[in-house]
Design a protein that fits this description.
By secondary structure, the chain is an alpha/beta fold. It contains seven helices and eight strands; from the N terminus they run E-E-E-H-E-E-H-E-H-H-E-E-H-H-H. Helices cover 40% and strands 17% of the residues. The strands form three sheets. It has a four-stranded antiparallel sheet, covered by helices on one side. The longest helix is centred in the C-terminal third of the chain and has 23 residues.
């Protein structure tokens, strides 16, 4: 949509995300991902195991290496993965396995610094087992959210007007990644979080999924819509607010370009 100019002429944008807290100035991490595959040689695991090359062993060694590596990574870095194919039958040495890995951090530079260390784990596992590694990283790193503080202050005030207590952003946790981040570098934007559950219900859990169809979800949707509408009114009617948001946006982009 950005590439095709669908946001041309828009002064500001908002998207509200359900969660455990009410956070007006929330953050989202830079992100990239890798599709991983190891290719080995199938063999009977009991009759002639020496003729096989176990692709699953290679994948497990790689993931264990990455798990150990995470202890030495900066606190803002997140690495998570799932095995999408681990073999067919236990009596057959797996000759083809796949996984998906996601790497996140506060900025793209940190991701690029960590990626070679992930690569070392992937390649080392291939060398140890004789399996062939095949992986495909995303063509680009998704940027972090450029949250507009002027807009967030207005949104936070409006959440309080609606009777919701607002928490400050957490610089170590409480972040995700999303398409809004890319748009936020082209248009002043915020992606606030609105509480839909208690704080002991983690997002993406079964309990969180169940709550998304309940009365608290309906209340969250309505309050999010009200807060966005009130913030839009503030941007249109409050003297200088839209100019302040635009000036902050230009300054943040300039500062980021200077650092890069």
């Amino acid at each position: 949509m950005l590439r095709e100019g669908q946001f041309a002429g828009i002064d500001a944008m908002m998207l509200v995300y359900p969660g455990m807290d009410n956070i007006a100035d929330s953050r989202a991490l830079a992100v990239t991902r890798a599709e991983i595959a190891y290719h080995g040689r199938a063999a009977h695991a009991a009759a002639r195991p020496e003729l096989g090359i176990n692709a699953l062993d290679a994948l497990l060694l790689a993931l264990n290496g990455i798990a150990a590596l995470r202890q030495q990574l900066h606190s803002d870095v997140r690495v998570h993965y799932v095995i999408t194919k681990g073999g067919t039958l236990p009596q057959v040495i797996p000759d083809h396995v796949t996984a998906v890995l996601t790497l996140r951090a506060n900025d793209a530079a940190t991701i690029e610094a960590v990626r070679p260390r992930i690569e070392a784990c992937l390649q080392g596992a291939a060398q140890m087992t004789g399996a062939r590694l095949d992986r495909q990283w995303s063509p680009s790193v998704g940027p972090p959210l450029l949250s507009n503080r002027a807009m967030a202050r207005s949104f936070g005030r409006n959440l309080q007007r609606l009777g919701r207590a607002v928490r400050g952003r957490d610089e170590l946790s409480g972040a995700w990644s999303g398409d809004t981040s890319a748009a936020s570098w082209e248009i002043p934007a915020i992606q606030p979080q609105i509480a839909m559950t208690d704080r002991d219900v983690p997002p993406h859990s079964h309990e969180f999924h169940a709550a998304s169809a309940g009365p608290r979800a309906e209340e969250a949707i309505l309050d999010a819509a009200r807060a966005m509408a009130l913030t839009a009114i503030d941007l249109a009617a409050e003297p200088g607010l839209l100019d302040e948001a635009a000036a902050e946006f230009r300054r943040a982009r300039k500062d980021s370009a200077a650092v890069a």
